[in-house]
Write a structure and sequence with these properties.
The structure is a homodimer.
Chain A (H helix, E strand, L loop, with lengths): L1 E3 L1 H14 L4 H16 L10 H10 L9 E6 L2 E5 L5 H19 L1 E9 L6 H9 L2 E7 L20 E5 L6 E5 L6 H10 L8 E2 L5 E2 L2 H7 L8 H18 L4 H4 L8 E9 H4 L5 H13 L15 H13 L1 E3 L1 H8 L2
Parallel strand pairs in A: 3-4
Antiparallel strand pairs in A: 1-11, 2-3, 4-10, 5-6, 5-10, 6-7, 8-9
């Protein structure tokens, strides 16, 4: 691992994206999102995934010249087609539009179909929170898990972000419906370590903490067993209906994941509860949580997004922590 | 257990509610909701909880004469005060209002504060689906679980319902953020059975499948460990902000659970995707799930709400299955 300044990473990623054929404004914007994700400690959807993204542009899975366009509009809800363009830029534009819609309506919703992987769900939640909105967004994905009781992967891990603005830093929940992502399973496998809790099934259908067995069986475990399985299913159904797009079933018939469906919701908090001292209320809730006695002596209780805020501060101060081998790969792109 | 016709249960519950002081229209409406919940197999929030509800009316936790009222309005989003009235009727009115708001705006949202337990989350999701809307609603509760890593209960189990309309019957996810409800833990304890998966901690902070130890420690497990804990926290924060009401922290300072905060969202599907063959798409997704090979030989894969639909059909045909002792208690109320 090594530490590299924010600007240096952004500049380097911009260079690579320009070489891959993106126009300058898109290259800069896209590089910024990848750099921010890394700065927030989400390397799996930052620099670690960047070479893969560049490959997707080169082979045409991602069309860098496509622009998303509005297909239909009804009051505070709109459907957009991503035209298989750049996932993070399509998603950013969709959440910005949901925020705009919330300004006049209190709440705004955009369904985005036919788009590509947005990298980190939290990116678009944070965008809403910066605009004084609660941001809720989710995406469907290619099939990654079996539904509860089944042996074959059929449901996506369908990441969901919920972000709530607060003067002392947003509260951000950013979670996939699998107990552990494939990226996390791979990290544990490389370290030769067992998972802290069961994360899926082995080939014989027995729950296991062995990441290698889960990656081989393609049977990752949904959070809360039947509950996360059900939540993944309804998130897919809603993304499909609201965007008028493809479901996990249809996406999984393609060789590579593309043409996914996403939903972006923004709720304008400034308009709704202007009279209440919202911030003081939030802080009281958060402080109460932080002051709960830990289960084990040294543990600390954290609120969703607290780890990210700490990592961001440290990375901005000391340089962003990146894997040396991955950085070398990027320099050679 | 015994089977009793739908009408007989509704009539009996109406009689008890009239005796408890409800006016006729409220008594009938409220009895209908309790009967429907039982008919759908959710006895824990149907007849089983009915004596408790009547007691809440008698001791004044629930004010049967209070009406909810609109406090503020901004576009497609409104805040209502439940005035500590009847939880199920306040919630029904709030979802109906969210549906109305969605008619002109595509999406509608109502935050309801200062209300009482709504019994089953799914009731209000189903209401939206019957009106051709996606229905999403959740409530906060008194503290029931420790946040992840903590030893004291501080977060609610904050039930969430998501319901999607479909001609062959709605898809309904209705889930609390705890892996098992207290009601479910109690059922297993009475039967002297272990839980199928770990459901909480013993007094020493060790995960256990023993329902008795979990009920004693007050340390129920959130779904997906840290993930369900985070989801419960953000659902509470959002309910508090959107309704302008009390959080789990404030509710837990009262002797009994009252004055909870709820959110109701309706998305008008008929307006949004009128051109797409939505129903065929939904059925294709559902059928694909149902046809997934099971993990074990005889298991069947189900979609969220399928069990409920089957139970409803059987109960309507043969009479609703209720606990004989509970029915005897109700007859004596």
């Amino acid at each position: 691992m090594k530490r590299i300044p924010f600007d240096e990473i952004q500049k380097e990623l911009t260079r690579v994206l320009l070489a891959a054929g993106l126009e300058i404004s898109k290259a800069e914007r896209c590089a910024l999102i990848f750099t921010q994700n890394t700065c927030d400690g989400v390397n799996s959807h930052g620099v670690n995934r960047f070479p893969n993204f560049v490959m997707d542009v080169k082979i045409g899975t991602v069309n860098p010249h496509a622009e998303s366009e509005r297909i239909s509009s009804f009051g505070a809800i709109e459907q957009w087609d991503g035209n298989r363009g750049i996932g993070p830029l399509n998603a950013e534009k969709a959440m910005k539009r949901a925020i705009e819609l919330s300004r006049g309506n209190g709440i705004g919703c955009v369904g985005l179909r036919n788009t590509n992987h947005w990298m980190r769900a939290g990116t678009y939640g944070l965008l809403a929170a910066e605009a004084d909105c609660i941001g809720i967004c989710w995406t469907n994905t290619i099939a990654l898990m079996p539904p509860w009781g089944a042996s074959e992967k059929k449901i996506g891990n369908n990441p969901l972000a919920i972000c709530i603005p607060r003067s002392e830093g947003p509260v951000l929940l950013d979670m996939a419906m699998s107990q552990f992502s494939n990226g996390k399973l791979d990290v544990f496998r490389r370290l030769g370590r067992q998972l802290p809790e069961a994360g899926g099934y082995d080939q014989n259908g027995k729950l296991t903490t062995d990441p290698d067995l889960i990656l081989k069986s393609h049977r990752a475990l949904p959070i809360g067993y039947w509950k996360g399985s059900g939540l993944a299913i309804v998130l897919d159904l809603m993304a499909t209906l609201i965007s008028g797009g493809d479901s996990t079933k249809e996406i999984s018939q393609r060789e590579k994941e593309t043409g996914v469906s996403q939903v972006f919701l923004a709720i304008d908090i400034s308009s709704q509860v202007a009279n209440a001292d919202v911030d003081a209320k939030m802080n009281a809730i958060i402080n109460d949580l932080l002051n709960t006695p830990p289960l084990k002596g040294t543990q600390t209780i954290r609120y969703p997004g607290q780890g990210m805020s700490n990592t961001r501060r440290e990375n901005l101060e000391k340089g962003i922590l990146v894997d040396s081998a991955i950085w070398k790969t990027i320099l050679e792109l």
